[in-house]
């Protein structure tokens, strides 16, 4: 008994576009109601949950393959990296890796488990973007997931005017400020290499000046003591 082989014609380009537009419209309705976007400037970026929702339209889901810690030269954990895979009908169709570290301004004081979770979320969102971004464009959104924008948004511009005014109030010349901060250049070393802010610099200077004052007061008290008496 012979079996007839049924050949399925691939969908026409126009039908693919029409289907994508329909999904984009539904996605926009869902995102607007939730809401599931982050606005940076005048641009809207989709949160990970929106990418998950769009994936479900075509039985697509993201799963974490692995996550592991990142270490500095002293072997301290400074963050995590993760890999995620996109699965459709039991097969992998996309994959991506991402990380989250304490070098980022928004994450430098977070717990390790939070860094690991965000690394996994970013990896999943990035993997979904690889296959779904063209539909997101039709919905009118940027194709970078909102979670990734926390690493690419520019830092605030240093307010040198305020910094110099703060130094003046502390009676600290800028040359002396560099000594307090243990740098050759505040712009190059403190802001550039160490990725710290001018406000943090002022706090360090205040703390060191307070410590110097306390040390002088202790020395003064000791000098006023009469030897042999207690």
Tags for this model:
single chain, two-stranded antiparallel sheet, 3-stranded antiparallel beta sheet, Enolase-like, domain 1, 230 residues, 50% helix, alpha+beta
Helix content: 40-55%
CATH architecture call of the largest domain: 2-Layer Sandwich
Which class best fits the helix and strand makeup?
alpha+beta
- Please report the distance between the alpha carbons of the first and last residues: 113 Å
Strand order of the largest sheet: 3-4-5
Backbone CA Rg: 28 Å
Query: How many structural domains does the protein architecture include?
Result: 2
Number of strands: 5
Write a concise synopsis of the structure shown.
This protein is α+β, with helices and mostly antiparallel strands. It is 50% helix and 19% strand. The mean pLDDT is 85.
Describe this structure in words.
This protein is of the alpha+beta class. It folds into two domains: 13-152, Enolase-like, domain 1, CATH 3.30.390; 160-220, no CATH class. It has helices spanning 13-33, 48-56, 112-138, 146-152, 160-169, 174-181, 186-193, 198-223; strands at 37-40, 43-46, 60-71, 77-88, 91-101. It has a three-stranded antiparallel sheet. A two-stranded antiparallel sheet has the order 1-2. β3 and β4 (77-88) form a beta hairpin. α1 (13-33) packs across α3 and α2 (48-56) crosses α3 (112-138). The protein is elongated, with a radius of gyration of 28 Å. The protein starts with 12 loop residues before the first helix and ends in a 7-residue tail after the last helix. The mean pLDDT is 85.
């Amino acid at each position: 008994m012979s079996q007839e082989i049924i050949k399925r014609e691939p969908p026409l380009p126009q039908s693919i576009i029409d289907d994508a537009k329909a999904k984009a419209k539904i996605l926009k309705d869902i995102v607007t109601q939730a809401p599931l976007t982050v606005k940076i400037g005048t641009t809207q970026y989709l949160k990970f949950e929106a990418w998950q929702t769009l994936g479900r339209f075509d039985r697509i889901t993201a799963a974490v393959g692995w996550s592991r810690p990142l270490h500095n030269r002293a072997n301290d954990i400074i963050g995590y990296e993760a890999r995620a895979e996109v699965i459709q009908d039991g097969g992998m169709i996309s994959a991506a890796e991402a990380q989250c570290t304490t070098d980022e301004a928004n994450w430098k004081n977070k717990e390790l488990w939070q860094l690991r979770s965000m690394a996994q979320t970013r990896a999943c969102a990035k993997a979904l973007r690889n296959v779904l971004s063209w539909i997101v464009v039709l919905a009118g959104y940027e194709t970078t997931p909102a979670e990734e924008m926390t690493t690419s948004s520019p830092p605030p511009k240093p307010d040198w005017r305020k910094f110099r005014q703060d130094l003046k109030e502390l009676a600290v010349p800028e040359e002396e400020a560099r000594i307090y901060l243990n740098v050759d250049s505040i712009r190059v070393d403190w802001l550039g290499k160490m990725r710290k802010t001018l406000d943090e610099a002022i706090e360090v200077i205040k703390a060191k000046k307070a410590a110097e004052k306390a040390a002088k007061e202790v020395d003064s008290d000791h000098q006023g003591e009469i030897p042999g008496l207690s």
